[in-house]
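ok so heres the complex, six chains, lmk if somethin looks off
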Amino acid sequence: MYELGVVYRRIVRADGDVAARLGTLGSATVHEALGRAGLMQPYMRPVYAGANASGTAVTVLLQPGDNWMLHVAAEQIAPGDVVVAGVTAACSDGYFGDLLATSFKARGARALVIDAGVRDVRALGEMQFPVWSKAVSARGTVKATLGSVNVPVVCAGALVTPGDVIVADDDGVVVVPAALAAKTLDAAVARDANEAGKRARLADGVLGLDMYDMREPLRKAGLRYID
Amino acid sequence: MYELGVVYRRIVRADGDVAARLGTLGSATVHEALGRAGLMQPYMRPVYAGANASGTAVTVLLQPGDNWMLHVAAEQIAPGDVVVAGVTAACSDGYFGDLLATSFKARGARALVIDAGVRDVRALGEMQFPVWSKAVSARGTVKATLGSVNVPVVCAGALVTPGDVIVADDDGVVVVPAALAAKTLDAAVARDANEAGKRARLADGVLGLDMYDMREPLRKAGLRYID
Amino acid sequence: MYELGVVYRRIVRADGDVAARLGTLGSATVHEALGRAGLMQPYMRPVYAGANASGTAVTVLLQPGDNWMLHVAAEQIAPGDVVVAGVTAACSDGYFGDLLATSFKARGARALVIDAGVRDVRALGEMQFPVWSKAVSARGTVKATLGSVNVPVVCAGALVTPGDVIVADDDGVVVVPAALAAKTLDAAVARDANEAGKRARLADGVLGLDMYDMREPLRKAGLRYID
Amino acid sequence: MYELGVVYRRIVRADGDVAARLGTLGSATVHEALGRAGLMQPYMRPVYAGANASGTAVTVLLQPGDNWMLHVAAEQIAPGDVVVAGVTAACSDGYFGDLLATSFKARGARALVIDAGVRDVRALGEMQFPVWSKAVSARGTVKATLGSVNVPVVCAGALVTPGDVIVADDDGVVVVPAALAAKTLDAAVARDANEAGKRARLADGVLGLDMYDMREPLRKAGLRYID
Amino acid sequence: MYELGVVYRRIVRADGDVAARLGTLGSATVHEALGRAGLMQPYMRPVYAGANASGTAVTVLLQPGDNWMLHVAAEQIAPGDVVVAGVTAACSDGYFGDLLATSFKARGARALVIDAGVRDVRALGEMQFPVWSKAVSARGTVKATLGSVNVPVVCAGALVTPGDVIVADDDGVVVVPAALAAKTLDAAVARDANEAGKRARLADGVLGLDMYDMREPLRKAGLRYID
Amino acid sequence: MYELGVVYRRIVRADGDVAARLGTLGSATVHEALGRAGLMQPYMRPVYAGANASGTAVTVLLQPGDNWMLHVAAEQIAPGDVVVAGVTAACSDGYFGDLLATSFKARGARALVIDAGVRDVRALGEMQFPVWSKAVSARGTVKATLGSVNVPVVCAGALVTPGDVIVADDDGVVVVPAALAAKTLDAAVARDANEAGKRARLADGVLGLDMYDMREPLRKAGLRYID
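and the predicted structre for the whole thing:
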């Protein structure tokens, strides 16, 4: 967060296949599998409904009202990456639109996650380039001041280190540290498998009270029923 | 709001048919018919566009970050109910997702209205189980602390008593006290009937100024036209 | 903002064709062409996805919780106008619904932009009458206190003078002073033409760094690459 | 919340001495003693530092931008009361200033708690009439529409029934149901007595880890120390 | 709001004596006298308690994160002026601190009103240079982009024209158009005189219900008393 | 942010004397000297006016509504430390009051910086134990779930590593990485020395336009004066 004017070209990316599989499990399951850590603030919303993406983080530290470093970041994108952008001070300007999205997509980026605003959101939907942002704003940015690429950044309250796995969907954005990705995938797969059977039973009218054996713990906690 | 650890099994529900008919009239008309009372704060939004529901309230008082009582509430749902959940302190966690929605739906619930967050919102849209919430968040909850079921709760600034009618749609969520439901329905029907003819006249270019005889009151209030 | 109880019948509208053409260019391009001025706050959002409109402003100054002047404004609408409403104090009530939308549409209005709430949003989507607002609320308004029509108003932080061009879409709402409309159109057209070629090159994988000749300025600004 | 145009003259007040003694214990201790219930949202702040008050609730239901019912409420104040005002829709106008404060004080009111705005805050500080509010605003109100006095109201997320005990200080505002006041006082006194000895030990450098015997539970929960 | 890079040296200031006398009456009284118009949003707060000021407006239009134009504005200050600053996009940076305050004070400025952040707030209090702002932030600004001085600006939702009277105190900030200043002073003086006698009567226990003859209008409006 | 249930006993603290001297220079000067980085969001406010503190960071990662780890952190405090607490999800509960403040003070802590709520704020002022927080709330917390001590935390948008220097005052809270502390002190001292002479000249009426030689750059940027 303090190193400005620097681009790290080499980053250690989490395994791309692991990132892809974490994406299919969704942010809610992955967040639980991570021990309920790594979730960005819920103000981060997709710019179109149904957006979902996962990949390895290329990070950008931006200055307020200045998107110069997004162009620098474009060159550092490898196929399968998700660009994650923090800003040195709160800003809702539209840093990113259809031109940058075209460039990012051509470079193989899967998505953008930005703790600021974006614009051209109709075009982003038509292109199906998924973006999670704090705001939508027609106000553009200048290209005047250096930030950095591939340094650790804080984005919407979460610390993101280059190479971390990002899982983003309608429910939010989760950051999985690269070193924990494989282990988190195992835990998430187990959790997910566990849910399929439950869904069927609940659909049949079985109560969670019975399926999860909650009646006795509730009684011990002092729950009283009154007729 | 002060009685924790209690489940009232017997509640007096408003008439289900009245609840259904209020639902067809919509939250805006019902709110007017009620004398402009009972509306939850406008931060309560449906998790998918076009959601609308009405029914009788089963209430839940939740603790922050803890959804245990939603499982307890599931057993108290009768077909036609809408579950309404207040929280003892502000919380945006995702208390409710597709598993609980499957269970609530199997029990006959029409909707959930919750002054907190929910998750699995894409699945909720696919299931067409309507939910109004304050937030969407992948962050789940624990099951550790008792709240209550079927006590009066404050939800998004409105007092909800078990059995009240809930009318929810794209415009918001209105609470109709059970004792006022029938009378409110009459007023809402009258109001609605009154609007149909007006719509046709306005579509023909008649001005509200003339249709509502506003010109004289405006003149008396001092309105001046300047050419 | 200080003249209450007045309706100016004659306003000097910007050229309707210029307004229409600005609309096709979109709020982001027009905002840049204006010198990055005139954008309303980003909390102004369309009530349905994909809404876009442009036209000449008929302005309304409303009192909190009172929509009387919207009826007065309806009579002042000429085909191609966009009604822009400011309020003398912050209010999220639903000032406008399907009846007024029917009337405005019949008068030839293209859209409503209101620094307050609206309701009947599903019907507005079905009618395809576009509205940008601060909130959605089922809470209606009364008709008791005078405001004004066609006086300058502040709407979502922007000053709007009657006859100005309004351009609104998914990215926000921009106000173009009537005197600057033609010049802004020229600048916006030039800007837009300039983007088409760029999009194709970026799609081919050319980097913005090269296309915009940024490498040398970045080096001069001190950017360092680290392997 | 639905009964408009009504003033209940007879209310059952909690014991005034109990209310006074709860006030000396403070909102944080009373909130714990109540089982962590009854706290208004933390956006309710005193208009001058150091304000603190307790008393029995006279409730008022106000309309947005209209303070007529505060005058009606003044007549219902008995010495030792705290006036608690909810509003049927969110509003930050200045409902209350030095004239009403003079009147309330002359009637024996201890404080005002209002889920809206107030004004003349310097004079309120000079008079030492304590007020907790959501906002400060010079914008005054009209006297045109009926609300009610001494009906249950929702104020800043808490339900307040006439006669309840209100405890307000720098930490917030707590509502104690009249029926629970005596029991809550006992619990709060016990809690408070318990704290005095602890403060002395902590000041001597004893750690909470030891004083509260937390080391073993922390170890069992899995806490690891790394040198 | 659209003219950037311009400084108007000649402005027509409202009468300084009228501005001073409006200041002694306070923002609440002046706002009423103006017909309840011209109040900035209540998020504008003084940086120290007890601040109050009035004077004639020198206006500044600032760019986000850039305080260059405050230096340009300093030269345009005449004794008795209040500097009022709007920003072309929302920004909470600290545009103003003790150095600029020293300069403004030396030039005879009475206060600063800024729709952004300021810093050095302790020093501002010690200097007794009153400032109303949206935020306090240690983050400083650059000096790189032109705005304008003495053009009309929108500040916290209010339109301010150079030379207007600004009245600011603990209750908020009101803008009085220069052309209305004398008339507003008369109305405010009358209103104030009217209040003195009322205060004494209310202190004696007379109810507003009686003093304002409200009982009959309340009865006609349908108010019912229930014992 | 992902390591829960761990306490690092050994941390490398920045030099205490450097921390103390940075404190005397203030958050605004230090933030500039750091290259305009490291500032927490401006919503972090001191609980009493005039609070200021500096020291080396002991960090705590808290769970929502649970202050157990603050007791664990107390043991890790060395004289001259500032405790900095992040939370795994947004929470405004009152995690800290006069008992913990007594303990922290006895251990030699200089201050608490917490991205959540605190209570007993009057007592904190009387004790002169400075606290910067997001909220004030009487709602207390439980002691049930592990977090960590002395891991990197995100607090109000800033990354804090154990041992970093914290500078906090009325203008905000700045984090200086331990490795940059000495260099930042030099830059801050130079900046501060530079300001003293300027203040005197500005007080004499010299304009910043002249003192900073801005007239020529402004002219080149295109500034026009109009009489």
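quick notes: The first strand of chain F starts at residue 6 and ends at 8. thats all i got rn
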